[in-house]
Design a protein that fits this description.
This protein is mainly beta. It is built from no helices and seven strands. The structure holds calcium ion (2 copies). One calcium ion binds next to loops.
Length: 136
């Protein structure tokens, strides 16, 4: 995952992902996840989001951890990084069910961004859009 420059966007699917991680803000331990490694090039407030009413196609949960969480959970979830639902942050046919969070990142300190799903959603995995906005 690139670290330099402005916002980065990704499209992928959690359907083939691992199934080992859980976010603190919403039960997501039985939903599959995809993890991105990111090393910020600035200290400040970064934002991660799956808001996209076309490309995100299930009820996402997102969060970030401070150590490589695969193949087994490691480190800690980063404060304020976990989000399940955000108003006006839409998935396809699911208003307000995509995810967005802003939290503090530190120059050259690698974090691990997790795109996960809500256990109780049907389906709890699928196609998603992820946008990572570095600190200004
Ligand atoms: Ca999970
Ligand atoms: Ca959600």
């Amino acid at each position: 995952m690139p670290s330099a420059g402005g916002p980065k966007t990704f499209t992928d699917t959690t359907t083939g992902g691992t199934n080992v991680l859980n976010g603190s803000c919403a039960l997501s331990d039985t939903a599959k996840e995809i993890v991105y490694e990111w090393t910020p090039d600035k200290t400040g407030t970064a934002t991660i989001e799956t808001c996209n009413a076309t490309l995100t196609k299930y009820d996402t949960v997102i969060y970030a951890r401070d150590a490589c969480p695969l193949p087994a959970p490691a480190g800690n979830e980063i404060t304020n990084s976990c989000n399940n639902d955000t108003a006006a942050c839409d998935a396809l046919g699911l208003p307000g069910k995509a995810s967005k969070s802003s939290f503090t990142v530190t120059l050259n300190t690698t974090i691990y961004i997790v795109v996960d799903g809500l256990n109780s959603a049907v389906p709890s995995n699928g196609a998603y859009f992820l946008k990572v906005t570095p600190a200004p």
